[in-house]
């Protein structure tokens, strides 16, 4: 199977654990199947990737994502995972067109091959991905140009669109699509046999490439990538779904959740508390997630969510947590935590003209060889061993060592073991833009 996972999201609804770089699919809050260790947690992207590989070890998975998420994907899934990068966000149809061109021109996937598009963040059981085999067979048969997976509804939801199949067979022709309704209308749809639209669809690679060339003027993957900013923002449903008459759907009747708020996230947490948390016996139906290295003590909480990270602290009644987005959009502070391909960084203190960052590198990884024009830096090694390179000069470093870097000096660090540095930045204009990259020194 060729599977494209769409990874997007701005990280507003699960603040403060999510942000523009660390969207909800990267938050580690779930136990892998069969594990109950509090230290053994996985994110949604890790869970979905693992589930697909469990069902089909030979599945070819490509993740379509924005530039800001690439480092987090490599951090959590490894350097070998296939990633198609959007230069900027242009909605789902341009993203899928770019991914299709990437499959053809960069990965040499044949145009008759089936391709399945799936969101990166569904909370599902393995049977969900077993249905992908049915989708592959539907594509191979050629009975329909576009093939969907519909979820058998468990309640009349206002949050989802609905697919109306002609029959109640496992595989059926689609007669109509229904937009997100009110509850009463949703109940009528369900009584008529409608299915939730879970955003999964499949087609031959040639199908979507032909549709892409009809709507976008491009020659190949590189041409589309270079001119991606000229693409009109349009969803796949509007560009393709509404204009296609030959559509089939396969039914999925197992567990499926679109986890998009703290309330729904809490429903799938395997324990009430993660991190340094102590809750008294009077706490009822409450969840606390603490990423800070200080304790949280909770007493008498009822139906509450508490989430704490270096980006902030949320204290909310569970149902109210769904309305957090406009409050987060008012915030103007810089991101204080991000996972990178080499490890992670956490901003621990911000002062006028100074910044303190905790930098953690994975064994065998390194920073880019770079310099800054407007700031000095001081590294203090807290944990681990590695090699610092400053203006081409290598120095072995260990806990307690201090490396002083002046503005303009080229520098990097290579981790031999897990390496934790305390980095103090001092300057009048500290910003992420103040960085010049160089080729790595031999």
Folded structure, characterized:
The protein has 442 residues and is an alpha+beta fold. It has three domains: 2-258, Spore Coat Polysaccharide Biosynthesis Protein SpsA, Chain A (Alpha-Beta Complex); 262-329, no CATH class; 342-438, Sandwich (Jelly Rolls). It is 21% helix and 34% strand. The chain contains ten helices and 28 strands. It has helices spanning 44-55, 70-77, 92-105, 126-141, 183-191, 205-215, 221-226, 236-239, 262-267, 325-329, and strands at residues 2-6, 60-66, 82-86, 114-119, 122-124, 146-151, 162-165, 171-178, 195-204, 247-252, 256-258, 273-274, 277-279, 287-290, 296-298, 304-309, 312-317, 337-340, 343-351, 354-361, 369-371, 376-383, 386-390, 393-397, 402-405, 411-415, 419-426, 436-438. The strands form seven sheets. It has a six-stranded antiparallel sheet with strand order 18-19-20-27-22-25. It has a five-stranded mixed barrel with strand order 6-9-7-8-10. Helix 3 (92-105) crosses helix 6. The radius of gyration is 24 Å and the shape is globular. The mean pLDDT is 91.
């Amino acid at each position: 199977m060729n599977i494209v996972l769409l990874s997007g999201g701005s990280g507003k609804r699960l603040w403060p654990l999510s942000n523009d770089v660390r969207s909800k699919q990267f938050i580690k809050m779930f136990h892998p199947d069969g594990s109950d260790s509090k230290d053994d947690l996985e994110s949604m992207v890790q869970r979905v990737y693992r589930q697909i590989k469990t069902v089909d070890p030979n599945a070819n998975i490509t993740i379509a994502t924005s530039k800001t998420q690439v480092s987090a994907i490599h951090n959590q899934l490894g350097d070998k995972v296939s990633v198609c990068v959007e230069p900027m966000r242009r909605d789902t149809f341009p993203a899928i067109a770019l991914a299709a061109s990437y499959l053809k021109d960069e990965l040499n996937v044949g145009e008759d091959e089936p391709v399945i598009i799936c969101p990166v963040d569904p909370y599902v059981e393995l049977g969900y991905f077993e249905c992908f085999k049915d989708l592959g067979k539907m594509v191979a048969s050629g009975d329909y140009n576009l093939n969907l997976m519909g979820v058998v509804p468990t309640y009349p939801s206002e949050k989802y669109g609905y697919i109306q199949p002609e029959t109640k067979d496992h595989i059926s022709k689609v007669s109509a699509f229904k937009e997100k309704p009110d509850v009463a209308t949703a109940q009528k749809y369900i009584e008529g046999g409608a299915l939730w639209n879970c955003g999964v669809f499949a087609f031959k690679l040639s199908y979507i490439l032909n549709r892409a060339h009809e709507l976008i003027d491009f020659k190949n993957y590189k041409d589309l990538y270079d001119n991606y900013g000229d693409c009109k923002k349009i969803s796949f449903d509007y560009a393709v779904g509404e204009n296609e008459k030959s559509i089939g759907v396969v039914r999925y009747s197992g567990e499926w959740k679109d986890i998009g708020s703290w309330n729904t996230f809490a429903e799938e947490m395997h324990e009430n508390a993660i991190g340094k948390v102590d809750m008294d016996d009077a706490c009822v139906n409450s969840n606390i997630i603490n990423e800070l290295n200080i304790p949280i003590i909770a007493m008498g909480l009822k139906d509450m969510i508490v989430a704490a990270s270096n980006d902030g602290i949320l204290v909310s009644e569970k149902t109210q947590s769904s309305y957090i987005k406009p409050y987060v959009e008012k915030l103007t502070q810089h991101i204080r935590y991000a996972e990178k391909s080499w490890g992670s960084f956490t901003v621990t203190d911000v002062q006028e003209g100074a910044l303190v960052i905790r930098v953690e590198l994975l064994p065998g990884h390194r920073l880019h060889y770079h310099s800054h024009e407007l700031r000095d830096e001081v590294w203090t090694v807290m944990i681990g061993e590695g090699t610092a390179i400053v203006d081409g000069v290598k120095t072995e470093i260990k806990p307690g060592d201090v490396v002083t870097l002046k503005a303009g000096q080229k520098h990097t660090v290579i981790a031999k073991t897990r390496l934790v540095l305390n980095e103090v930045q001092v300057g009048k204009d500290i910003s992420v833009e103040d960085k010049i990259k160089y080729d790595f020194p031999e």
